[in-house]
Write a structure and sequence with these properties.
The protein is 38% helix and 14% strand. It has 271 residues and is of the alpha/beta class. The structure holds S-adenosylmethionine (SAM).
């Protein structure tokens, strides 16, 4: 296995944690007082975040069902977050029994919860790793025991890349994954964007920066034109990279104004 050079975060109930803050915002139960305080500040700046997150989970469900329909049976969900309703393995295995799903996250709390949930599911595994260490992830036994990279695979990067603040690092992660994909593989990305409400995203960015232990940026809400190149060299599945509610909504699904959700996403296929 390629070594990881990075120190992974440790469990720390005294510091707000991205996955636990988001869990609070979507009404989960895995959070501490410090996460709730952080969430309250975030919601003051971006009160529509619960809508964004619920639309994001709905879109993830549609994307996974689409991928199962086009024959994908191997899924790697990087930056998977705390288990919630409609996890990737539940959707994929309901659509295509026997689908194999590997969850990757750098957060020890996410990994512990995911392991507990998946203990009796032989077709899933959980890897604790930093997304920046793509080689380490691809060679990890937790991945190689389930995923054959010679066969089509879907890599899912749903609201992960905005947490990778260096542009060249984010681009490098995506490029390495694209290179590793066999023909017929797919890459799904969702990313918050700054185009729709720049004031809100600028305030959020400043808040995250202030909340960071060392004052360094912890997120980068890019603009739409910066997301499109992640799909370079891939064939974009219709309708392309769009605001999430506009990505193949199910017939009869209650609709919200797509522009009100400042997260875009899409799927690219490697031919
Ligand atoms: C915004 S949440 C998204 C969760 C899930 N994909 C979703 O859409 O509901 C981002 C997740 O990425 C994880 N994460 C952030 N930076 C990461 C990194 N460098 N490597 C691996 N995971 C990371 C966080 O721990 C968190 O669980």
């Amino acid at each position: 296995m390629a070594p990881s050079e990075r120190e992974l975060p440790r469990f720390d109930p005294t510091m707000p944690n991205e996955a636990r803050v988001l869990d609070f915002i979507i009404g989960g139960k895995d959070h501490f007082a410090v996460d709730r305080e952080a969430a309250d500040k975030i919601l003051e700046v971006a009160p529509d975040l619960p809508l964004l997150m619920s639309e994001s989970r709905k879109c993830l469900g549609r994307m996974v069902r689409f991928l199962a329909q086009v024959g994908i049976r191997q899924f790697v969900d990087i930056g998977c977050g705390l288990p919630t309703r409609g996890n990737v393995h539940e959707i994929a295995q309901a659509a295509a029994p026997g689908s194999r799903v590997v969850y990757v996250d750098n957060d020890p709390v996410v990994v512990a919860h995911a392991q507990a949930l998946l203990v009796s599911n032989d077709d899933t595994s959980v890897v604790q790793a930093d997304a920046r260490d793509v080689e380490h992830i691809l060679a990890h036994p937790g991945l190689t025991s389930l995923i054959d990279l010679e066969q089509p695979v879907a890599f899912l990067l749903v609201s992960l890349l905005q947490g990778i603040h260096e542009d060249d690092v984010a681009t490098g992660i995506v490029k390495r994954l694209r290179d590793a994909m066999a023909p017929g593989s797919h890459l799904a990305i969702a990313h918050a964007i700054s185009d729709t409400c720049p004031e809100v995203t600028a305030d959020l960015w400043a808040l995250f920066r202030r909340g960071s232990t060392r004052g360094e940026p912890r997120c980068n809400v890019r603009n739409k034109a910066e997301i499109d190149p992640y799909f370079d060299g891939l064939e974009l599945v219709e309708p392309g990279v769009v605001h999430l509610p506009a990505w193949r909504p199910d017939p009869g699904e209650p609709t919200v104004d797509p522009e009100s959700v400042w997260v875009v996403g899409g799927i690219g296929r490697k031919n």
